[in-house]
Amino acid sequence: MKLGDCVAQCQTPFVVRDQTCGRTTVLNNSASCAAHIARCAARYVLSDDLTALCADLAYSKGARTLACSDLLHVPAELLWVEWCNQPWHSALERYGFPLVEGGCRWAGRRGALIRSSPDGRRGLLRTFWSTADERDVLASSLEAYFDFDTPEGEEPEPPDRGQGRAVKVFDSASPGDDVLGRCFRFRYERTWADYYGRAQLTCAETDAIWRHALGTIAIDVPMLVAFFLLLATRSGLPQRAQTFERLNGSRRKRGKKPLLDHIEVRSPLLPEYRDAVRGEALGTRRIPRLHHVRGHLVRRGSQLFWRVPHLRGSARAGVVRTHTVVWTFDDSPRPRGASAVRLRAGGRLQ
After folding, report:
1. Is 67 part of a structural domain of the chain?
2. pLDDT class for 302, splitting at 50, 70, 90?
3. Which of 40, 123, 244, 343 is the most buried (most CB within 10 A)?
């Protein structure tokens, strides 16, 4: 069963009990979002190959200098996106992201619910995940609000004009110059903010909880940005609508809830690798040794060039295997305030 179905069918409220006074509190979690998932205008399910591609775009160091915020928009006012944890988790390990032991490793699937403005340029998102056996489906206690038109040096406006603490996550190697740090802010969902506000925590406890909660949502943002970027390309992504009319008829007869329609999205077909045999070195120049070249992105006008990771050089003939993929966007005026951004997950709190 897809994660969206698990959330939509969740009916058990998330209740916590204060062991000191016996007070119980209902916190906003998966059951609170079930109706929103069912009402989504579109529900996207990423294939494993597309998940791997989006992860490469999101977390590779070669994608850090991509200016892309003017190309981004959420394609619906209420949208659901989900993917399998395994290829996503593998990419995090491959690119050196430290993962909490016992945290993301046990997640079966991950997803995000996004509510956006009609133009798709600003909105609010929240992340969800399931265990491998799908017995537990949880939502992040934090939510992220965003504005892709945020000018450099300014803060994105919260969609509800709400007050309270909002946290910025950014790449410490280049603060203030990435889409995550400039356009996104993270805050507790209202019921969670009230709950922790009554807890009388120390500063150290508050900071530790913030960091743990950020780990359930901030790392997903570059992945979603990469997906929206690919979805906005002129050629788009291969899509296949999945409907369950016959199956749902059978499920209703057995007293089960129907499954939600969704759109399966796959990675675009990429050309095969071509071998390029280098000639003999000119003069006294040495033939480069066999080495790995990381994937990297380059933007030229309305085109994005992605060179996938490849081996370069040879101890004998100097064979280099390269692969360049070009995505083209329709020309459009650059929104006011848009500037160069980086597809890179952040590293510290501010």
Report:
1. yes
2. low
3. 343
